[in-house]
């Protein structure tokens, strides 16, 4: 339901802008438009990443400050296509679940973003002892696909990304 609401809101805003009735809608490619997309990804009206739950704690990634509004960057790379970059910060530098958190972010965004996108997910620089290895894993399509074929791992990801009732 929230996805339909978000799409409807976006479409209505675009129609109003094109008709000249709404001056708040931003031109394609403008920094304001990219900021709007970043807010959309973080959780403006769809709560895309901020509601993902931590794999081992009863908190969301936002509550643990693993993700924040400032960790999302969106840049237009083509006509109606965007590069979405997420930089998350695990709670501790040796977090054993950092790869799983990155996987949850990727899966949720792939499912929920209503616009054409390229997705890059990274651990914030200096925030983890093996950040380089983890960054490679969570940005490798084949490794992500293989991970999601594992039924136990898939179940954990589903629990983390499923919206609360």
Describe this structure as you would to a colleague.
The protein has 165 residues and is of the alpha+beta class. Helix content is 44%, strand content 14%. Mean pLDDT is 79; it is low at 1-28.
Descriptive key words:
three-stranded mixed beta sheet; 14% strand; 165 residues; alpha+beta; single chain; disordered N terminus
Widest sheet: strand ordering: 1-2-3
Secondary structure category: alpha+beta
The arrangement of helices and strands along the chain is HHEEHEHHH
Distance between the termini: 12 Å
Provide the gyration radius in Å: 16 Å
Gross morphology is: globular
Poorly predicted runs: 1-28
Our estimate of the beta-strand percent is: 5-15%
Layout of helices and strands:
Layout: H1 2-19, H2 31-42, E1 72-78, E2 81-88, H3 98-112, E3 116-123, H4 131-138, H5 141-149, H6 151-161
Helix pairs in contact: 3-4, 3-6
Task: Kindly summarize this structure in a few lines.
With 165 residues, the protein is α+β, with helices and mostly antiparallel strands.
């Amino acid at each position: 339901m929230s996805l339909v609401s978000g799409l409807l809101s976006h479409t209505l805003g675009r129609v109003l802008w094109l008709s000249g009735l709404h001056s708040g809608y931003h031109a394609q490619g403008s920094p304001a438009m990219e900021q709007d997309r970043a807010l959309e990804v973080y959780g403006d009206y769809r709560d895309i990443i901020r509601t993902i739950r931590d794999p081992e704690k009863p908190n969301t990634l936002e509550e643990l400050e693993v993700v924040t509004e400032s960790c999302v960057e969106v840049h237009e790379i083509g006509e109606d296509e965007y590069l979405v970059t997420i930089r998350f910060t695990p709670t501790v530098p040796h977090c054993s679940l950092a790869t799983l958190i990155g996987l949850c972010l990727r899966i949720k965004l792939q499912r929920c973003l209503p616009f054409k996108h390229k997705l890059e997910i990274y651990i914030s620089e200096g925030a983890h002892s093996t950040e380089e290895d983890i960054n490679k894993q969570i940005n490798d399509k084949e490794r992500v696909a293989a991970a999601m074929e594992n039924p136990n791992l898939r179940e954990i990801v589903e629990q983390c990304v499923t919206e609360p009732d």
